[in-house]
Automatic annotation (TrEMBL):
<dbReference type="GO" id="GO:0006099">
    <property type="term" value="P:tricarboxylic acid cycle"/>
</dbReference>
<dbReference type="InterPro" id="IPR019818">
    <property type="entry name" value="IsoCit/isopropylmalate_DH_CS"/>
</dbReference>
<dbReference type="Pfam" id="PF00180">
    <property type="entry name" value="Iso_dh"/>
</dbReference>
<dbReference type="InterPro" id="IPR024084">
    <property type="entry name" value="IsoPropMal-DH-like_dom"/>
</dbReference>
<protein>
    <submittedName>
        <fullName>Isocitrate/isopropylmalate dehydrogenase family protein</fullName>
    </submittedName>
</protein>
<keyword id="KW-0560">Oxidoreductase</keyword>
<dbReference type="GO" id="GO:0006102">
    <property type="term" value="P:isocitrate metabolic process"/>
</dbReference>
<dbReference type="GO" id="GO:0000287">
    <property type="term" value="F:magnesium ion binding"/>
</dbReference>
<comment type="similarity">
    <text>Belongs to the isocitrate and isopropylmalate dehydrogenases family.</text>
</comment>
<feature type="domain" description="Isopropylmalate dehydrogenase-like">
    <location>
        <begin position="3"/>
        <end position="332"/>
    </location>
</feature>
<dbReference type="GO" id="GO:0051287">
    <property type="term" value="F:NAD binding"/>
</dbReference>
<dbReference type="GO" id="GO:0004449">
    <property type="term" value="F:isocitrate dehydrogenase (NAD+) activity"/>
</dbReference>
Amino acid sequence: MKNVVLIPGDGIGAEITNSVTTILEEAGAEINWIECSAGLKAYEETGNPLPEETIEALDEHRISLKGPLTTPVGSGFRSVNVALRQKFNLYSNIRPARTLPSIDSPFRGVDMVLFRENTQGLYIGKEEWIEEADNKKHAEAIAVVTEEASEKIIRAAFEYAVKNERKKVTLVHKANILKLTTGLFLEVGRKIAKEYKDIEFQDLIVDNMAMQMVLRPQQFDVVVTTNLFGDILSDLASGLVGGLGVTGAANIGDDAAMFEAVHGSAPDIVGKNVANPMALLFSSLMMLEHIDQKQIAENIRKAVYKTLVEKKVYCTPDIGGEGTTSTFTQAVCDNI
Ligand code: NAD
């Protein structure tokens, strides 16, 4: 039995985590769930969006599955998601994008896994106002790229490629313009690529990458990039296979990992039994792979694909079904 911290989160969080834990149990996953709270609900109950007990549980067990958290605009509390990534140095954000049966998309045959550096680049929040003589507004932001952090994420991408029998790693940068920051990222990538002779290495400038992803996404296998480019390209990749509602995500560091759905808490559909649990379910499959319960993940994946073939009957309205959270959950359980 593996201890996993379960944070249902806000809004539809309880409904989709219920569905996911039911399916994992049906499939025989060996998990002991330790339920903890975080987000708006935790804030309303305890005055803290990230209670000390939750941090202690995460510290002890190191693996978590997290539903969406509401971040009220202008409430003064910082994003718990960002706080967790920083606290546990979850430097790899991993987003697979794989074509699914019966999910509408003009693109078929997509199967890529995008690694986004999660702690540096332009997203470190170092911004400042610069005083101008004419009182015109002027703001500046700093991007940070270090050799050490670049090495970690790029190595994580190559190691993933080896473990999962992938053939190619594409590094995305803008080293022709941002010669120092993304230039360093590229330099580290070229150095690491030499250690992995069996994996093809390619580097692409980000604007070309965006075009190629739309023209011929099937050419990409494992992709690794910096924080800002990764933020944009990972959503683009999800868009190629049906959007954020059907793609899983993981945040992984050296000694902790958090698996989560990328969509939000969907306040407009709470309690209506129409929340789609697929994104969180796919994240939980990444978690099962991470904790060496790969066969169980594969069995669930097959059961979901089978359920998708009869999408109209069993799946939720957001992907064109006429079913509910419950009918989807039951159908996946039956197909296992
Ligand atoms: P949202 O993703 O919650 O909702 C956008 C639209 O997508 C809504 O119409 C919603 O009903 C639909 N939707 C989202 N998930 C769905 C699902 N699983 N099944 C069916 N439909 C689904 O985005 P938002 O409305 O911009 O944000 C709401 C709250 O969520 C905000 O407080 C925001 O801060 C938070 N949020 C959290 C995360 C996270 O925890 N990772 C991510 C994004 C937004």
